[in-house]
């Protein structure tokens, strides 16, 4: 599912940001990276920096003037030129804003991709979903992504500091009873399987992470403090990039 | 692009955000030749590049109010939108090659010549930070950047092992970053 990369390492994160802007990450790496990017201002800054670092590739190209007929086409399309009252009203922008509001009210803009991201249609595998575990300070600890057939991939980012011998345990709560999916990795990544009987409720179940002793895992029930809880968010085509 | 012209572009973008058509036209005349060159390099077909360029400026007009000068220089922001639209077009072509047969048939004639003359001119005015990359690093980065190729696709296109490609990209990015950040 994923290349073994370690997003808990700052150097690797920075490199991943460069490869993300360059566009060489595969579909699943890109989805995981974007999930983290959405909650990490540090990573957003790095992505911005990489766009500037790579800009010389554009600057080196010899400018080519487009054919003269193109500007009138564009001006007409945005309502400029022949009917100046449209321009004063900024009608196009009003319509666009109106459309955005309608789209929002139908829940179309449910997944906000950071400004300027390269998001080709179909970049995210339909059926994949993701949950980013945040601690109290909103620092991302892990990215959990799941495929429709119940395979989960967990990537450690910056897990909260924990007492020796303790770690984060992932719980799947479908009908009120938490079922342990195992301990989350302190570094690197791990695969986890959702038991077959629970897969049908993958989309609706709650996920929770609690602090538990590593040795006796998996436990029958959670006993430690809760780090975060939430649901997997489906990712699909039709993401909005601006 | 000079800092003074970047400042002018910033002014145009702010005015576009408040719906000023004159500023939009100025922005178009100041930047369209750069963005068109970028699209020609990505989609490698004139009429597709023109359609994409139209989409670029529609999006710029619609989203100028979201331009944030603390996050990107104006030209970088415009180039990012341009690259997204160009690479989206490329990926659609890959998925539905039957729609693009004509385009690709004319491509070979049109573009190889254009590309050859481009390369000649490029080598005259190569950015110093691109000049410090090894030939293989630059080729891998440039192909990825303009052709939307993943590590695995680059390995196939350049007939090199995946590990070699990854290391060219990794080292190339490191050098580029060091040069762009500290001039080394």
Description of the structure:
Chain A: One of its GO terms (molecular function) is sigma factor antagonist activity. Chain A: The chain crosses the membrane at residues 89-111. Chain A: It holds the Pfam family RskA_C. Chain A: InterPro entries: Anti-sigma-K/W_factor (IPR051474), Anti_sigma_zinc_sf (IPR041916), RskA_C (IPR018764). Chain A: Keywords: Cell membrane, Membrane, Transmembrane, Transmembrane helix. Chain B: One of its GO terms (molecular function) is sigma factor activity. The complex is a heterodimer of chains A (242) and B (184). Chain A has 242 residues and is α+β, with helices and mostly antiparallel strands. Among the domains of chain A are: 70-105, no CATH class; 129-234, Sandwich (Immunoglobulin-like). Chain A contains seven helices and nine strands. Chain A has helices at residues 10-22, 27-37, 41-54, 56-59, 70-77, 84-89, 91-105; strands spanning 129-134, 140-146, 151-156, 166-173, 178-183, 189-193, 206-213, 226-230, 233-234. In chain A, strands 6-3-2-1-9 form a five-stranded antiparallel beta sheet, with helices on one face. In chain A, helix 1 (10-22) packs across helix 3 (41-54). The radius of gyration of chain A is 22 Å and the shape is elongated. Chain B is mostly helical and 184 residues long. Chain B folds into two domains: 1-125, RNA polymerase sigma factor, region 2, helix turn helix motif (Rna Polymerase Sigma Factor, Chain: A, Orthogonal Bundle), CATH 1.10.1740; 126-184, Arc Repressor Mutant, subunit A (Orthogonal Bundle). Chain B contains nine helices and no strands. Chain B has helices spanning 3-17, 21-43, 46-63, 74-95, 101-124, 128-131, 135-147, 151-157, 162-182. In chain B, helix 2 (21-43) runs antiparallel to helix 3 (46-63), helix 3 crosses helix 4 (74-95) and helix 8 crosses helix 9. Chain B is globular and about 50 Å long. The two termini of chain B are 20 Å apart. Classes of the chains: A alpha+beta (242), B mainly alpha (184). Chains A and B meet through helix 1, helix 3, helix 4, helix 5 and helix 6 of A and helix 2, helix 3, helix 4, helix 5 and helix 7 of B.
């Amino acid at each position: 599912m994923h290349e073994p990369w370690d997003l808990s390492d700052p150097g690797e994160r920075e490199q991943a940001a460069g490869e993300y802007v360059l566009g060489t990450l595969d579909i699943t790496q890109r989805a995981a990276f974007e999930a983290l990017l959405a909650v990490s201002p540090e990573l957003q800054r790095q992505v911005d920096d990489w766009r500037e670092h790579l800009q010389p590739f554009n600057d080196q190209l010899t400018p080519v003037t487009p054919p003269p007929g193109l500007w009138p086409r564009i001006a007409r399309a945005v309502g400029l030129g022949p009917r100046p009252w449209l321009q004063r009203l900024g009608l196009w922008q009003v319509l666009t804003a109106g459309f955005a509001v309608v789209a929002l009210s139908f829940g179309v803009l449910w997944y906000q991709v950071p400004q300027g991201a390269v998001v080709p249609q179909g970049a995210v595998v339909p059926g994949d979903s993701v949950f980013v575990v945040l601690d109290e300070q909103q620092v991302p600890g892990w990215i959990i992504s799941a495929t429709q057939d119940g395979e989960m991939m967990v990537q450690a980012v910056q897990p909260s500091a924990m007492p020796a011998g303790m770690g984060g345990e992932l719980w799947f709560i479908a009908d009120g009873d938490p079922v342990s999916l195992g301990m989350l990795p302190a570094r690197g990544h791990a695969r986890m399987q959702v038991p077959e009987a629970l897969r049908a409720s993958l989309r609706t179940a709650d996920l929770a992470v609690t602090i538990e002793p590593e040795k006796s895992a998996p436990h029958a029930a959670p006993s430690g403090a809760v780090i975060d809880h939430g649901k997997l968010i489906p990712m699909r085509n039709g993401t909005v990039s601006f | 692009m000079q800092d003074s012209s970047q400042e002018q572009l910033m002014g145009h973008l702010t005015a576009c955000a408040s719906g000023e058509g004159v500023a939009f036209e100025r922005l178009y005349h100041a930047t369209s030749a750069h963005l068109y060159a970028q699209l020609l390099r990505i989609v490698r077909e004139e009429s597709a590049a023109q359609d994409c360029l139209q989409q670029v400026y529609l999006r710029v007009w619609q989203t100028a109010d979201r331009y944030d000068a603390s996050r990107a220089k104006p030209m970088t922001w415009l180039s990012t939108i341009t690259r997204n639209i160009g690479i989206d077009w490329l990926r659609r072509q890959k998925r539905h090659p039957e729609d693009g047969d004509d385009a690709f048939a004319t491509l070979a004639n049109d573009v190889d010549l254009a590309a050859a003359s481009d390369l000649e001119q490029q080598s005259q005015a190569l950015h110093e930070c691109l000049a410090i990359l090894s030939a293989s690093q630059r080729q891998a980065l440039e192909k990825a950047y303009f052709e939307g190729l993943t590590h695995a696709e680059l390995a196939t296109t350049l007939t090199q092992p995946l590990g070699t490609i990854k290391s060219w990209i990794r080292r190339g990015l490191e050098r580029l970053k060091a040069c762009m950040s500290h001039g080394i």
